[in-house]
C-alpha cells in the first residue's frame, strides 16, 4: 500500500515491480545479483482519482510512455530493498508533483515612480561617464 495523500492510496496490485540486474561497473556481485528494481505503473488502469490521472497523462515526462505507463528504474543503492523503497518514493513524488496546481501568473507593470527613478539613475550615470571623458564640453 503506497499512501499518496490523506485520502489517496495505491494498492500493491497496481504497482508491478521486477528485480533486474543493475547496469554499470560493479564488484563481484554485479553480474550475479538482481538488485535493481524496474517499476511499472499503468495510469489508466489504476484506482487514482480522475484528477490525478488527467494531470499525469498531460505531463511531458520521459518516464511516462505513450500508453500511459510510468516506468521507473531504481539502481542507485546496493540492496534490492533500498532500491524498491527508492522507486516507490519516486513514483509518489511524481504523482504528488502532478497534482500541484500552479498559481496563475498575472502580468504587472512598473509604477510611474519606479520608471522615473530608473530613468533618473540612468541620466545620472551618463553624466558621471561624460565627466570622465577627455573632452568636457559642459
Automatic annotation (TrEMBL):
Location in the cell: Cytoplasm
Annotated source species: Psychromonas ingrahamii (strain DSM 17664 / CCUG 51855 / 37)
Record has Protein biosynthesis as a keyword: no
PANTHER family per UniProt: PEPTIDYL-TRNA HYDROLASE ARFB
Keywords: Cytoplasm, Hydrolase, Translation regulation
BP term (GO), one: rescue of stalled ribosome
Main location: cytoplasm
Broad class of enzyme this protein falls into: hydrolase
Subunit composition and interactions: Associated with 70S ribosomes and polysomes.
Pfam short name (any one): RF-1
UniProt-recorded name of the protein: Peptidyl-tRNA hydrolase ArfB
E.C. numbers: 3.1.1.29
Disordered: annotated span: 106-138
Gene3D superfamilies: 3.30.160.20
Similarity annotation: Belongs to the prokaryotic/mitochondrial release factor family.
Annotated InterPro entries: Pep_chain_release_fac_I, Pep_chain_release_fac_I_sf
GO MF term list: peptidyl-tRNA hydrolase activity; ribosome binding; translation release factor activity
Gene Ontology annotations for the cellular component aspect, listed alphabetically: cytoplasm
Reactions catalysed: an N-acyl-L-alpha-aminoacyl-tRNA + H2O = an N-acyl-L-amino acid + a tRNA + H(+)
Bias kind Basic residues: ranges: 106-132
Source lineage: Bacteria, Pseudomonadati, Pseudomonadota, Gammaproteobacteria, Alteromonadales
